[in-house]
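Memo to structure team: turn this sequence into structure tokens by end of day. - J.P.
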Amino acid sequence: MFYEVHARTPGENAYRGPVRFLLRPAWLALITTVTLFVIACYALLAPWQFGREAERDTEQHALDAASTIPPAPLAQVLPTGGVTAAVDWRQVSVTGTYLPQAEALVRLRVYDGKPAFEVLTPLRATDGRIVAVDRGYITAENGAVVPPYPAPPAGEVTISGRLRVDETDPDHRAAFVADGRRQLYVTDSRIQAAATGLPIMEGYLALATRQPGVLSPLPVEPAAAQSTAPFTNFSYALQWLTFGAIAVFALVYFVRLEMLQRRATSGATRRRSARSAERAAFRRELAGEDAEHTDSS
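Reply from structure team:
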């Protein structure tokens, strides 16, 4: 009798589908969230950081290679055309005259933890070409008010610096005038040329320290980044891969924990049902014995 009752206990019937609870809305939401997070880690975030690391490594190699070449006249490095990736970071010198009336400020910069503006002043070289010169940056109390800063020297000057490829604004925002100054969102000589009407060659010259007209010279970004935080992007990529693995492990752990808890609950239910069946059978046996005793009397 005990085994017949045990075979029909509700707890055992519930345990016939040990993972059926995963179809509940809360579990489906958790599984979906973890799945999307893992896909993001392995298909988007980690590859993105690996790509950033590769780009920075490529830029560092370009900078190292350019630094081994002594400065050369601009006309020798760029006989025609503008700055391309092949000559990015090359050190050049040029003689010409600053054009302060065509100057522009690059806003939304941060240097030394403070808001800053980069000052982009065209220079007309002796060969007639016009090149945008990034004279460095000036810090400000906030990014909306331009602080006073020295004007470039008048007359003919000879300057040296590093050639840089134009930055690109993904939003393609034009130059505008604010606080009495022409301002740009990125360091892009093409936008400056469109705003001033001057035939400024593509690319710009980042002025070196102790040069005529220099302000606070721009840091050499790849070298600075490598010296302060080596392998940062690679570490971030590994972290995203680790986070994805931890998410999968945690999901499996919680599913296993839920199964164990349900198994324990199901076992306790079966034991209670068995004890109840035994007590019922015992009561029926007692009732039968009492009935037999009454009949015999």
